[in-house]
Each structure stands twice: as C-alpha cells, then as structure tokens.
Design brief:
Number of domains: 2
Number of helices: 7
Structural class: mainly alpha
Radius of gyration: 18 Å
CATH class of the largest domain: Mainly Alpha
Shape: elongated
CATH architecture of the largest domain: Orthogonal Bundle
Distance between the termini: 28 Å
CATH superfamily of the largest domain: lambda repressor-like DNA-binding domains
C-alpha cells in the first residue's frame, strides 16, 4: 500500500523541475501551470498539497504519471499503454495475452 507524503511528493516536483534545466525556475513553471510562485514553493517544500486537477497538470507538464508525483511509483508510458490495451480485450483474450506475455518473459530470462 502506498501512502501520500507531502514532503516526498514536493521533493519529486522539485527534482522534476530541476531535470528540465536551469531555465525552469519556480517563476517559469508556476506561470506555465497557472499557479503562483509562492504556491509552487510551498508544494516543493512539502508544506502544501495540491488538487487532483493540478496534479494532472503537473503530470502532463513533466511527462510522468500522477502515481510518480504522489507516491514515487514509476510506470513507463509503454507499460501504461500495454495495460490500457489489455483492459480493452475480452476476458478470454486477456487470459490468452497474459499467457503469451508470461511465456515470452520466461524465455527471455
């Protein structure tokens, strides 16, 4: 089970901003996502939480999942895309696809 930690979530937001480069100051990011610099500062310091709507904006802005920002859980977009495709299959085809994927992975190991 994952627990939301404001401080750790804030550290991840700051880390994501820093990874974008020195040009991405708090002022620049705050303006681009539509919040004040002070609010972003408090978010990055772990002193304030944000709405789900703002979390979605940050996830899109930094090209990560909301789970990564809130919990540090890393899932690549490829894994998410595969999961979405699996969800669209019928139950029988989902079982077959799961068996095929497991067989392929077993042969790779």
């Amino acid at each position: 089970m994952y627990y939301y930690n404001l401080v750790e979530s804030g550290k991840r937001l700051k880390e994501l901003r820093n990874k974008k480069g020195k040009a991405y100051t708090q002022e620049k990011v705050a303006e681009e996502v539509g919040i004040s610099r002070e609010y972003l500062n408090r978010l990055e310091a772990g002193k304030k939480g944000c709405s789900v709507d703002l979390l979605v904006i940050f996830a899109q802005y930094y090209d990560v999942t909301m789970d990564y920002i809130t919990y540090g859980k890393v899932e690549t977009k490829h894994v998410i895309s595969l999961s979405e495709k699996m969800d669209n299959l019928s139950a029988d085809r989902r079982i077959l696809a799961g068996k095929l994927i497991n067989s392929i992975l077993d042969n790779l190991l």
